[in-house]
């Protein structure tokens, strides 16, 4: 019932799937979250594997490397009403 109520709203939804291989930082964070308790953990310094992945991602962004397939995939709008 809750999903049907959401579908009745007057809005457009943009859905974008990004695979694990294209977003290793988010994948690493998700895996880290699954391994922690529900109370959560706050890190003063990011775990080393995450820091390395984040540095690599930052370097790629600074080099202006963009995946055109990802940009095209995320630019499509989906109307949830069909």
From TrEMBL:
Residues 62-82 are annotated as: Disordered. It comes from the Eukaryota. This is RNase H type-1 domain-containing protein. It comes from Hibiscus sabdariffa (roselle). The lineage of its organism: Eukaryota, Viridiplantae, Streptophyta, Embryophyta, Tracheophyta.
């Amino acid at each position: 019932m809750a999903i049907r109520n959401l579908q009745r709203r007057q809005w457009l939804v943009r859905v974008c799937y990004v695979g694990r291989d294209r977003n290793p930082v988010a994948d690493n964070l998700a895996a880290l979250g699954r391994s922690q308790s529900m109370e959560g953990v706050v890190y003063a310094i990011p775990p080393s594997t995450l820091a390395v992945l984040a540095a690599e991602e930052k370097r790629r962004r600074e080099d202006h490397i963009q995946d055109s397939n990802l940009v095209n995939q995320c630019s499509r709008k989906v109307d949830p009403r069909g």
